[in-house]
Amino acid sequence: VMGGRPKNLRVVGRNQALPHPYSHPRARAQGGPKQRLSRRRTPCRMLGVVVTGSTKGVGLALAREFLKTGDDSVVICSRNQEQVDKAVKLLLQENPNLSSQGRNRVGGVACDVSKAKDVVNLREYASEFLGHVDIWVNNAGTNAYQFKPLIETGSEDLQEIVETNTLGLMFCMK
Fold first, then answer.
1. Looking at residues 104-121, what average pLDDT do you find?
2. pLDDT given at position 44
3. Which of 24, 102, 112, 130 has its C-alpha lying 20 to 30 A from 137's C-alpha?
4. How much is the pLDDT for 123?
């Protein structure tokens, strides 16, 4: 800015908080915002949710949280159909009321996200099961079940990591 700093610009120190934008007297006089946007979801619409890599760990916890709302339906997936079936059974046992209008609210299918064909099958299954997909959580990932430096990682393990974590993400976002 030519001629120095503008008069309405305030320098804020590292530990100082900026005032709320509607705390200024002129903003208060104008009534503040015309409409406040709510961050809460309206309870009248059920969300269709897909969570990849969701038979254990963070993915399973995410599926549980979406099901806790009482409104959402969830599709889970993993590479192994047996693990998917176990996780679906577990979620149904934890939430016996997961039947809405005679329809299960949790389903699952095997899907290796590093394979484009599997992701297409997951998308088709989810669209049919849920009716619509509102949220897609790309949770699937791998470290090839090892905890060692990259330089010590074998070529096959490195390829599995890149295919799942990078290509899998891209296939799911497509």
1. 95
2. 53
3. 102
4. 97
Which tens digit of pLDDT belongs to each residue from 10-41?
A: 444 544 544 555 455 555 555 555 444 444 44
H-state helical runs in 69-113: 81-94
Q: Which residue has the tokens 């008069």?
A: 7
The pair of structure tokens assigned to 96 is: 């016996």
Contacts of 75 (CB under 8 A, 6+ apart): 48, 49, 50, 51, 106, 107, 108, 109, 122, 125, 126, 129, 130
Alpha-carbon gap, residue 48 to 173, rounded angstroms: 16
CA–CA gap between residue 149 and residue 28 (Å, rounded): 57
**Dist. CA 161–CA 150, nearest whole Å:** 11
Please tell me the number of Cα atoms within 13 Å of 149 on its side-chain side.
2
CA dihedral 21, 17, 14, 10 (to 10 degrees): 40
> Whole-structure pTM over 0.85, yes or no?
no
What are the residues whose beta carbons fall under 8 Å from the beta carbon of 6, sequence distance 6 or more?
A: none
